[in-house]
């Protein structure tokens, strides 16, 4: 049985399967929802991880302050790599980070995490253009186009259902970008060395729904 309250070691990381990694995150979110966090000694985890790290998953998520990754998954120091960028979009820098985590640091799972009421998605839906944000929000446009073919509802940020559907479709866009733009990760996923999934966090309830 995996003791998720202790600092990950090379041995424990090796023994964790991609499916185990998903289950650890699901159980962590359940504890978060019940306000029953694992009892961790953070000073001990700092000491134990000072000479090396062995995370079991990497999470690509939005910068939103309401989505603190380690807290909503109830994970400790050394458990997760966390990449954060508005709209959880993919770039070469993001891909390089994920490739490092999976190929060189032993990570078993990639999670692309979105959330409801996403400000970046709202901005993209409204066609916001301003500075470097213009380039970033254009990465969400394919998800907007996909969503527009699925619904005839009001298609701007005033329609939260449309915004949330775009956010969900954007998860799959980011996953497709990871596969298509990184031969390294595509090969590792195909050979079942790692698993990639998407997940949607509700800022209203704290619940995380997983999708492969």
Report on this structure.
The chain has 212 residues and is of the alpha/beta class. The chain has a single domain, classed as Beta-carbonic Anhydrase, Chain A, CATH 3.40.1050.10. The protein is 48% helix and 13% strand. The protein has a 5-stranded mixed β-sheet with strand order 2-1-3-4-5, sandwiched between helices. β4 and β5 form a beta hairpin. α8 packs across α9 and α9 crosses α10. The longest helix is centred in the C-terminal third of the chain and has 22 residues. The mean pLDDT is 96.
Biggest sheet layout: 5 strands, mixed
Helix content: 40-55%
The total beta strand count reads 5
User: What's the end-to-end separation, in Å?
Assistant: 24 Å
CATH superfamily: Carbonic anhydrase
Structural class: alpha/beta
- State the shape: globular
In what order do the strands lie side by side in the largest sheet? 2-1-3-4-5
| Average of per-residue pLDDT values | 96
CATH architecture: 3-Layer(aba) Sandwich
Question: Regarding CATH, which class?
Answer: Alpha Beta
Stretches where pLDDT falls below 50 for ≥5 residues? Answer: none
> Structurally, how many domains make up the residues?
1
Would you tell me which CATH topology applies? Beta-carbonic Anhydrase, Chain A
Q: What share of residues are in beta strands?
A: 5-15%
Question: How many helices?
Answer: 10
Elements, N to C (H/E): HHHEHEHEHHHHHEE
């Amino acid at each position: 049985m995996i003791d998720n309250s202790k600092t990950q070691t090379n041995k424990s990381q090796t023994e964790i399967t991609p499916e185990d990694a998903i289950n650890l995150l699901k159980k962590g979110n359940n504890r978060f929802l019940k306000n029953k966090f694992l009892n961790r000694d953070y000073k001990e985890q700092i000491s134990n991880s000072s000479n090396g790290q062995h995370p079991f998953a990497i999470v690509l998520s939005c910068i939103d302050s309401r989505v603190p990754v380690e807290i909503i998954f109830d994970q400790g120091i050394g458990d997760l790599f966390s990449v954060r960028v508005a709209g959880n979009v993919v770039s070469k820098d993001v891909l390089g980070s994920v490739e490092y985590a999976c190929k060189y640091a032993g990570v078993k799972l990639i999670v692309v995490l979105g959330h409801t009421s996403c400000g970046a998605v709202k901005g993209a839906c409204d066609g916001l253009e301003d500075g470097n944000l213009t380039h970033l929000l254009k990465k969400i446009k394919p998800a907007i186009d996909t969503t527009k073919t699925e619904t005839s509802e009001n298609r701007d940020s005033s329609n939260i259902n449309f915004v949330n559907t775009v956010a969900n479709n954007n998860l799959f866009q980011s996953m497709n970008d990871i596969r298509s733009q990184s031969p390294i990760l595509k090969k590792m996923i195909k050979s079942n060395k790692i698993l990639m999934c998407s997940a949607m966090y509700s800022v209203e309830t704290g619940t995380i729904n997983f999708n492969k």
